[in-house]
Write a structure and sequence with these properties.
The structure is a homodimer of 206-residue chains.
Chain A (H helix, E strand, L loop, with lengths): L12 H25 L2 H8 L3 H7 L3 H21 L7 H18 L1 H12 L6 H24 L8 H17 L1 H8 L8 H13 L2
Helix pairs in contact in A: 1-2, 1-4, 1-6, 4-7, 5-8, 5-10, 6-8
The structure holds a DNA duplex (30 and 30 nucleotides).
DNA sequence: CCGGCTTTTGACCATTTGGTCAAGATACGA
DNA sequence: TCGTATCTTGACCAAATGGTCAAAAGCCGG
């Protein structure tokens, strides 16, 4: 009912363009400074629109933030949805790891936006976690447990496995500043793919 | 030279007590809302002191934040310093994992404070990372590489191994809000110790 | 109990910031 | 081309916020 993305036809071309401009600028600013650290003036400057104009398209700072988080949730959970119950368990999970790492490489701002929100106790995305994330994760955990029970994976706690995959992959985006100091690399440093593949292959191989 | 902790004798008893009160309150507030999200009034309320009184003990909001980060850095890096070059490689590293997880359990506020700071690009702790963290990590990486070369550990990229340990352990503190939704647990959920031990034992066993 | 010091505070200030509003500019179908 | 609906903005506002200051209160050795 409230899925904003599905009826984009209700927006004029100008609205579509400017809403996209604003959301992209907001992603930049929110992910770099957090919700309270970001200002409407920064978003205005980054989007090339005036502050009152931004308030014409969104009901306020919070509205922009919530809209962003809602839109991103889909993209964020996509890799987990792609896991194929009919596939080879080990390959499916390693592919998931690979896709998640790819997300850290291609969408670090999105990763940091989520991290910021969760760090502060998920005040604005909490309901989405319950309604979107939880069912999906429960489904995935059940699937993995089934694979374990069938002896197709080494015994592992599905929930903790998922946490470990999230943690290791998102770490490269969320802690990029620290990693940069230690490796000199700018984005995800060389060897991350191979390392994570080895880590989880060894854990999961029966 | 600038180590504030070493000459605590220069502070009166009242100063010692109130500075501690302020720093503890600030840790609470900063870790929950980030630097810009925290206000002096919140810190004042949480510490039981008046706002001007807080400014009597610290030069400003930023001074409190920097002081906090500096103090915490020591505690934060302690587990890595405890790794014994003369010990059994696998046991030493698994013990490090265990100690880091313990930190997430016992000092989640500290973990989130660091995470907040790094997420925003380490604007205030950057120099400390260079001067304190980097040499220590380089030392540890060299140590691990030596163990690998001696065949006492499975081949592994030391830097990525360290990142994975940080990521998986700190995840339980930094993403507690998300984990709470998914597991119902309040702090670090049951089974984290066993899971991480299995994860890294399998990776590192030659 | 005194005098000097440290500590505490109420009142105040300048700036930042999210948000409003009425008027002007622009797009666009008829 | 015209008129209406959409879009844009300069000026403005109230609240929040980091910080100041002079005066009051408390502490403590002599």
């Amino acid at each position: 009912m409230e899925h904003a993305a599905q009826d984009e036809s209700r927006f004029s071309r100008i609205q579509l363009r400017n809403r996209a401009l604003i959301l992209d600028a907001a992603l930049e600013v929110f992910s770099a400074h957090g919700f309270r650290g970001a200002t409407l003036d920064q978003i205005a400057a980054a989007s090339g629109l005036s502050k009152p104009n931004i308030l014409y398209y969104f009901d306020g700072k919070e509205d922009i933030h919530v809209t962003l988080l809602g839109q991103l949730m889909d993209r964020w959970l996509a890799p987990l949805r792609e896991v194929d119950p009919a596939g080879e368990p080990l390959e499916e999970l390693l592919h998931y790891v690979h896709r998640k790492l790819e997300m850290s490489r291609d969408y670090p701002r999105e990763s940091r936006l989520f991290a910021n929100e969760i760090l502060q106790g998920a005040p604005r995305i909490g309901p989405h976690l319950e309604s979107d994330l939880r069912p999906l994760v429960d489904w995935a955990a059940g699937l993995i447990q089934g694979w374990v029970d069938a002896g197709r994976l080494a015994p592992v706690d599905p929930m903790h496995l998922i946490f470990s995959i999230w943690a290791t992959t998102q770490h490269y985006a969320d802690f990029e500043a620290q990693i940069g100091v230690l490796t000199g690399a700018d984005g995800v440093p060389e060897g991350a793919d191979a390392h994570l593949e080895a880590l989880f292959r060894r854990l999961l191989t029966p």
